[in-house]
Structure formats: C-alpha cells, structure tokens
Design goal:
- The chain has 264 residues and is α+β, with helices and mostly antiparallel strands.
- It has one domain: Endonuclease/exonuclease/phosphatase (Deoxyribonuclease I, Chain A).
- 20% of the residues lie in helices and 25% in strands.
- The protein has five helices and 13 strands.
- The chain has a seven-stranded mixed β-sheet with strand order 3-4-2-1-13-12-10. Strands 5-6-7-8-11-9 form a six-stranded mixed β-sheet.
- The longest helix has 23 residues.
- The chain binds one DNA strand of 18 nucleotides through loops.
Amino acid sequence: MRFATWNVNSVKARLPRLLDWLAGTAPDVLCLQETKVPADGFPAAEVQALGYDVAAYGQGRWNGVAVLSRVGLDDVRLGFPGEPGYPDPEARAISATCAGIRFTSIYVPNGRTPDDPHYTYKLAWLAALRDALAADVAAGPTVAAGDFNVAPTDDDVWDPRLFADSTHVTPPERAALAAVRALGLRDIVGRPLKGDRPFTYWDYRAGMFHQNKGMRIDLVYATEDVAGAVRDAVIDREARKGKGPSDHAPIVVDLDWTAPGPAA
DNA sequence: ATGCCCTTGTAACAAGGA
C-alpha cells in the first residue's frame, strides 16, 4: 500500500496539479494540509472521479486539512479532544481509519515569532496533539503525517545560522516534537531525489528551490508496526517544479501492508 | 534547466505563511 502527505497551499489553486499527481502517483491514502477551503468548498467530485473517498475539514481562507482514501475511510474525526483554539477552534487535524491504519493529517500552527502569542499556541497545540495521539498509538497502527512546522534538527534547515531566534528551530518546539515521538512513533524520513538532504519545503522567493535552500518540516510519524513495513519513502520534488507548484513537496511512503480483514 | 513569492478576501491593499 502507498500513502502520502502533502501541504498543497490551497486545494483550489492546486487542483489541476493535484489531480495529475493523484493519477500519476496513485497513493491509496493522501493526507492534505492547507486546503484553504471550507469542507463544502472542497473539490470532492473531481477527486471521487479518481476513485477516492474524501474527508475534509475546513473553515475558509486559512488552514484546512483532509484525508483522501481508496482503501476505506472510517471513523472520521475532526480535530481532537483537548485541542486548543486561537481562541476559536481551527481546522488543523483530521483523522480517519484506512486499511487498518489510523491516519491523522496534521497542520501545526506556524508560531510566527517566539515572542508572539501564536508561538505559545503552537506549543500548547503540540502538547495536546501528543496527548490525543497517545490513545491512537495504544489502540493500533497509527500514522501522524503532515506539516509540523518544526525542523527536528539543524540538519533539517539549509542554513541554521539564518534561523537563530526564529520559529521552527527553537528548543521548546523540538522538545514538543520529541514528546510526540516518545509515544513510540518513528520518524519516516523520505529519500531526497536530488542532493543529500531530505527537505520538503522551499520558499517561493529568491530561487530557493533551484538552490536547494529548503527545510524538512513535513514529517511522517508511524508506530513500529507500520514503520517496520516501510519498503521505501521518497520526497517527490518533481511536484515542486514547474508552473504553479505548492511550496511543499509530497512525501510518498510504500508499505508491505495487508489490511486486516473483517472480523470472523 | 527546477529559475528567482503566493493565496485569499476584499476593493488597492491586508494578512498570513516559515
């Protein structure tokens, strides 16, 4: 089975590229972030025409997450228990069970600057996410995938000196991420198809992509049963090329996985 | 060449992204 995660930076602006990519890559499950549409604005018919069921959670111009699946889409949950708002709830997490794996598509708050209230919100959100994922991890095969807006190490930033005193690299953010992993989740790092660093995001400005000045902030965290079934994981930089791309590339994971059958 | 901000909402910018 093949699953993927992709911050598309507007599913409406990206729709032609998303449909081409779905047809070519054919993931069984896709976690989307930054769809930037309310649920009733999600282009469900176009995606269903390619064989996918859709669960979308959105709120308008910002945020928005979704899970697409062609191997079942059960027990959909919007957000998670104890999720903080800013101050109101935001569409940053959606969960569904597909082929016996509990997937959560995640869009962590940006944080803006370390002295901004949004940064405090980011840390609280990550702490609450950890608590919510603990139940999933205890229950069975789990994947938490998406845009975590944290670079786990200095090697995950093209020039860590330029990020001193910025969000995405601060020790509290990295500690919050480590606490999520400490639930028993493994970091499934995609292979870079060019260069030696597994970046998943490149700023639109100043030719950052063609200079490979990027960051690894999109992550796939998986329980041991799933991680042990990984045959390959790739960062699809082809999707970052050309006209009208997202500023993030998808991570595509191939598993040797047989979904549990119906109960006898 | 992969090629030098983008998206949405609302009215020429404002806000957010990372």
